[in-house]
């Protein structure tokens, strides 16, 4: 299988179809509305988590952080490999509190893809120079790629 053509760097990326996804669809009024760009071998989502998603006061709920990791990891498979995936497992290691209402950078890259059924995708959440959290997950390939009908 030939390697897919990578999208240009630092240009907004959009999925070929909009299914109303909670994480990335602009049509989902209650969703996150994440957007993505490619930077090197990673997919990046710059995002400010709204106050409404706090756990402790001023701190993002861990579940919303995990949701964003899930989204950016799936976007890595789509935009870097032209492959649809579903999450098999996702582990998040929280290093520091993640603030709400502050600019954050989520990024993910494909760490390992030697298995025919899944890829291991890792993520990192940072604010300025601080790494707030990291993720690792197994993302199972869907039966069809993104470009296929």
List the helices and strands and how they pair.
Elements: E1 37-39, E2 42-48, H1 62-81, E3 83-94, E4 103-112, E5 118-127, E6 130-145
Antiparallel strand pairs: 1-2, 2-4, 3-6, 4-5, 5-6
Structural account:
- The chain is mainly beta.
- The chain has a single domain (37-145), classed as Thiol Ester Dehydrase, Chain A.
- The chain has one helix and six strands, in the order ββαββββ.
- The protein has one helix at residues 62-81; strands at residues 37-39, 42-48, 83-94, 103-112, 118-127, 130-145.
- A six-stranded antiparallel β-sheet has the order 1-2-4-5-6-3, with helices on one face.
- Strand 4 and strand 5 (118-127) form a beta hairpin.
- The protein is globular, with a radius of gyration of 15 Å.
Q: Give the H and E element order.
A: EEHEEEE
Write down the domain tally. 1
Instruction: Please state the overall shape, judged from the principal axes of the Cα atoms.
Output: globular
Distance between the termini: 18 Å
Can you identify the CATH class?
Answer: Alpha Beta
What is the radius of gyration computed over CA atoms, rounded to a whole number of angstroms?
15 Å
The pLDDT mean sits at 92
Given as residue ranges, the uncertain stretches (5+ residues, pLDDT < 50) are none
Biggest β-sheet: count, sense, barrel? Answer: 6 strands, antiparallel
């Amino acid at each position: 299988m030939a390697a897919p053509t990578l999208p240009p760097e630092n240009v907004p990326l959009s999925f070929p179809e909009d299914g109303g996804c909670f994480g990335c669809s602009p049509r989902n009024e209650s969703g996150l509305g994440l957007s993505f760009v490619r930077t090197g071998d990673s997919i990046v989502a710059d995002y400010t988590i709204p106050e409404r998603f706090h756990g402790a006061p001023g701190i993002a709920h861990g579940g919303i952080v995990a949701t964003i990791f899930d989204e950016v990891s799936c976007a890595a498979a789509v935009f870097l490999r032209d492959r649809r995936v579903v999450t098999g497992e996702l582990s998040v290691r929280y290093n520091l509190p993640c603030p709400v209402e502050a600019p954050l950078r989520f990024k993910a890259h494909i760490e390992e893809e030697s298995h025919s059924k899944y890829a291991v995708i890792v993520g990192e959440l940072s604010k300025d120079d601080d790494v707030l959290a990291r993720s690792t997950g197994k993302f199972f390939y869907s039966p069809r790629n993104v470009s296929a009908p």
